Amino acid sequence: MAFCDRDGRLGDSEPRIAAHSCYGFAPMSDFHSQLAGVVNSFVAQVSALAREAAIQTLGNALRGSASVLAERPARATAQPRIAAAAPARRALPKGAKRPAEELADLQATLLEYIKAHPGQRVEQIKQALGASTKDLALPIRKLIAGGAVRSEGAKRATAYFAGKGKKA
Question: Is residue 61 part of a domain?
């Protein structure tokens, strides 16, 4: 096998890559610059395509948010929220009791909701009233104790119905 030597002559010595033209091959510096040009061109094309795709995706997200929502099937809302649902809870110190009027208001709202929507679980009630389960626990217990509300089932499957007693 023949290789170019340092002087560009053909020889049988150890292989060397010539830094100049040997039998019609471009010198190595030209090869590197050509290769760098091809690589840079490729990188520029890929970057331009990625930038275009990102801009298109962002444009679709901003411009088509209404169309994306229109494509989704509409979720059926179980129950509309009651206007004066649960009163906004004040930040109380840990362990402090809620004021009696706040509990009474929440009980009245809860009783009104249960009468209008019998058989719902606390998860559905809290979602409709915009209150937490923790906030509803005491008013529900008081309504059950007073006979204004009765419950059927156990734990998470407990459903609440209007009772025959008076409001607690």
Answer: yes
Is there a domain that residue 85 lies in? no
The residue from 69, 88, 119 where one domain ends is 69
- Please write the tens of the pLDDT for every residue from 97-146: 889 999 999 999 999 999 999 999 999 999 999 999 999 999 999 999 99
Cα separation of 44 and 35, whole Å? Answer: 14
User: Could you tell me if residue 118 is inside a domain?
Assistant: yes
Residue 132: give its domain's CATH number.
1.10.10.10
17 alpha-carbon distance from chain centroid? 57
| In contact, 161 and 149? CB cutoff 8 Å | yes
| Among candidate residues 165, 125, 120, the one with its CA nearest the CA of residue 145 | 165
Token digits of residue 45 = 């094309």
Angle at 99 between CA 97 and CA 100, to 5 degrees: 115
3-class DSSP assignment, residue 139:
helix
Beta bridge partners of 121: 159
Instruction: Output the pTM of the full model.
Output: 0.46
Q: What is the mean pLDDT of residues 26-35?
A: 76
Mean pLDDT of 33-43: 88
Write the pLDDT tens digit of every residue in 58-87: 888 787 655 544 555 555 555 555 544 444
Rounded CA separation 148/144 (Å): 6
